[in-house]
Amino acid sequence: MTQHTPGPWQIGGELISQEGTNIEIASVWAQSANRKFAPSQSKADANAHLIAAAPELLEALVTLCDKVDHNRYNPRADFDFFLADAAARTAIDKAIG
């Protein structure tokens, strides 16, 4: 698995950083006089929360898929579960590159 900066990540203004360190992960900007093509403040805030949650989301998806892989329950028998499982695995692939 590709290594990323370990979580948890925190939001501090426009910066997302590793909690307890000065390691910056990302900047999320909102619209202003100088940033006309950035998202609105509410969307920028939502984006920041999504990015900050990324390590926990990835860990949860990996754990879920691992449990599905090692369980006798066949998720393919339930089409909705199959779709959720496929979406989780696609998200994991995207997250780890």
Architecture overview:
The protein contains two helices and three strands; from the N terminus they run βββαα. By secondary structure, it is an alpha+beta fold. A three-stranded antiparallel sheet has the order 1-2-3, with helices on one face. A hairpin with a 2-residue loop joins β1 and β2. α1 crosses α2. The longest helix is centred in the middle third of the chain and has 29 residues.
Topology:
Blueprint: E1 9-12, E2 15-18, E3 24-27, H1 41-69, H2 79-96
Helix pairs in contact: 1-2
Quick structural summary:
This protein has two helices and three strands. It is an alpha+beta fold.
Count of distinct strands: 3
Mean pLDDT: 86
Trace the largest sheet across and list its strands: 1-2-3
Q: What structural class do you assign from the helix and strand content?
A: alpha+beta
**What portion of the residues fall into strands of 2 or more residues?**
5-15%
Quote the distance from N terminus to C terminus. Answer: 8 Å
Which tags fit this structure?
single chain; 2 helices; 48% helix; alpha+beta; three-stranded antiparallel β-sheet; 3 strands; 97 residues
